[in-house]
Amino acid sequence: MNDEMRMYLESVARRRIDGEDAAHDFEHARRVMMNALKIGAAEGGDVDVLIPAALFHDVMMFPKNDPRSDDAAHQSAMMAVGILQSTDGYPAAKIQRVADAITHCSFGNPADGLPLDALILQDADRLEATGAIAIMRAFWSAGQMGQPLYDPDDPFARSRQADGLRYAFDLFETRLLRVEERMNTGTGRELARSRTAFLRTFMTQFNDDLLMTRETL
Amino acid sequence: MSITNIPESLSLSDVEMLHRTVAHVRNLQAGDSTGHDWTHTLRVWNLAVVIAQEERADLVVTSLAALLHDVGDWKLFDGDEEQGHRVVEDWLVTVGADTALIQRVLAIVSRVSFMGGGSRVEAMSLEGRIVQDADRLDAIGAIGIARCFAFGGAKGRLIHDPDTRPNPDMTRDEYKKNRSSTINHFHEKLLLLKDRMNTPTGKLMAEKRHTVMVNFLDTFESEWQEANSLDLEDQWEG
Fold it and tell me: How many CB atoms lie within 10 A of CB B189?
């Protein structure tokens, strides 16, 4: 892909992605693209597929507590197909591969039997769910959805099931800490390692800050 | 039902007053998620009691002021400080606080809110300095990071805008109107707090939390840079 086409696709993504949600804004899409290119450079992937797949993987986005959220990956894939079909010079034969990668991108999706580009996109997106950026995204989203930061009666979910949809801090357990082990590629796992270590440090500090503050009514 | 935050040395009527205030504030702040919610008040109260015991301050004044410090926050009344003041005073009258106690608590509550790096710090009672320390402590460290981003999300603020430099020397009015990015908020407010702690106990607690934020910002910046500095030209051959 030449520079001109990438910049064109970036400009479409910038326009199409709703800037209201900082956890899934254009900057997120751009960071995922950079992650995908970095992983792709080491693992071998098709840049023509990775760039639009990363830029448009969250182009249709709803809050996590919105019922339409379940279908967002499929809708984003359809949107990407439409955009690429009307992009002069984009190879038609690769459009379906972009759509497949986006459809399978979401966090809970199994990786079995996926093509390399889809595996790389999954890793690139999951990198955003670990490290300092993931801490920012988790708490930012909680604020946006009006959800509590933690369960004041049991912040570390010791006597209940962790629920990342309810408490931002539970997301560390249900998602952020699991990113590293769920990476598909060796390069992705390597990139995730230091970010996971940072998460653990942060969690210890969070615990320290809450220690003298347990509600004991 | 017992509240371990309420020191055993207090009289029965003081304990009763604190119990009622806890229930009242908890009720008022239950639905808030902008960072000034009940869990914030609870943390500030806990911190304030810990500091007050170290600094040998009045535990009733400290507790009431900590519990009520956000109830009259100007940010909740479209910037109207008078109205916030009245709400707190009404409550203290309701629970039967005497005039002297009401004055001591009100004097604290009306001054605790932070107003920009350049604003003047007025002389405050020991209890006031303690509540302010506790409030500032809860704005920094890991919990401060969490609250800062949650506030940004609730208000739809920009996360990071590397092209806009932070302004740590804002006046009170500039601070009230400020809409800068969440990362800049660390530089314009949160990183300044360590050097503004009033009590030795507060200072000590702030040092550690400050380091946590500095480490977080370093890591955040490097992750952000990493995602923006890759040489795309190298990737084209794929």
Answer: 23
* Mutation choice for B interface testing from A209, A212, A217 by most B CBs within 10 A: A209
Distance of residue A48 Cα from the nearest chain B Cα, in angstroms: 8
B201 in contact with A, Cβ within 8 Å: no
- In angstroms, the separation between the Cα of residue B237 and the nearest Cα of chain A is 8
Q: Domains along chain A?
A: 3-211 (1.10.3210.50)
Q: How far apart are the first and last CA of chain A?
A: 62
Residue A63 — pLDDT band, cuts 50, 70, 90?
Answer: confident
Contact assignment for A132 to B22 by CB distance below 8 Å: no
Residues above pLDDT 90, as percent of chain B: 50
8 Å CB contact of B223 and A195: yes
What CA–CA distance (Å, rounded) separates A119 from A40?
A: 10
Nearest to B49 by CA among B62, B68, B35: B62
CA distances from A189 to A35, A158, A193 (A): 12, 28, 6
**Average pLDDT of the residues in B110-123:** 56
CATH number of B12-226, picked from 1.10.3210.50, 2.60.120.260, 1.25.40.10, 3.20.20.100 = 1.10.3210.50
Q: Is B35 on the interface with A (CB under 8 A)?
A: yes
Helix A186-211 with A26-43: angle, nearest 10 deg: 140
Domain ranges of chain B: 12-226
The whole-chain average pLDDT of chain B stands at 83
Q: Which of B157, B202, B151, B205 is nearest to B181 (CA)?
A: B157
ipTM of the complex as predicted? 0.81
Per-residue model confidence as pLDDT tens digits over B57-74: 999 999 999 999 988 765
Of A136, A205, A212, the CB nearest to B159: A136
Q: How many Å separate Cα A104 from the centre of its chain?
A: 12
Residue A117: CB partners within 8 Å, gap ≥ 6?
A45, A46, A49, A50, A53, A97, A100, A101
Interface touch A22/B153, C-beta < 8 Å:
yes
Chain CA centroid to CA B100, Å: 26
pLDDT band at B76 (very low <50, low <70, confident <90, very high): low
Query: Which of A89-93, B163-167, B216-220 has the lowest average pLDDT?
Result: B163-167
Backbone angles phi, psi at B49, to 5 degrees: -65, -40
Residue of B50, B235, B236, B237 to mutate, testing the A interface (most A Cβ within 10 Å of its Cβ): B235
